[in-house]
Amino acid sequence: MMTGGRVLEYLKHYVVNGRNTVLIVGFQAGGTRGRVLLNKNHEVKIHGRYYPVNAGILEIQGLSAHADQLELLKWIRKFKKRPKQIFLVHGEPGAQDALRVKIQTELNLPVKIMKQNQDVLLFTCNSLKNSNLP
């Protein structure tokens, strides 16, 4: 998603030249430089400076290191002890909501879509003392 690291140094040098092509592989979330480039913006901000996007921008779709909706449902079904609650903390809002609906309707589990900096109490010290943990 080009949010940090060495790729930013490469991007600074290659994105300005119209003879270059930046090939983007994998999902690019909204608000990231990768999404900015895919949206055909005419400039991209890197380390506080704006660089003109003169390079061609191409995308290879369908490659991702993340599980898809079907894989996540399959993973949840494998739990020997059903979870009491599912928290969704990552993903695009529309995709999160679609997954929430699927989990609730197919697995009959409560699902909460978390917001940034939202707190949730997962357990208390008393609940740990009364658990089956060693």
UniProtKB/TrEMBL annotation:
SUPFAM superfamilies listed in its UniProt record: Metallo-hydrolase/oxidoreductase
Domain Beta-Casp per the UniProt entry, residue ranges: 1-36
Cited Pfam families: Beta-Casp, RMMBL
Source domain of life: Bacteria
InterPro entries according to UniProt: Beta_Casp (IPR022712), MBL (IPR050698), RibonucZ/Hydroxyglut_hydro (IPR036866), RMMBL (IPR011108)
Key words of the record: Hydrolase
UniProt domain Zn-dependent metallo-hydrolase RNA specificity: residue ranges: 51-113
Entries under PANTHER family matching the protein: CLEAVAGE AND POLYADENYLATION SPECIFICITY FACTOR FAMILY MEMBER, INTEGRATOR COMPLEX SUBUNIT 11
UniProt protein name: Zn-dependent metallo-hydrolase RNA specificity domain-containing protein
Organism for this UniProt entry: Pedobacter gandavensis
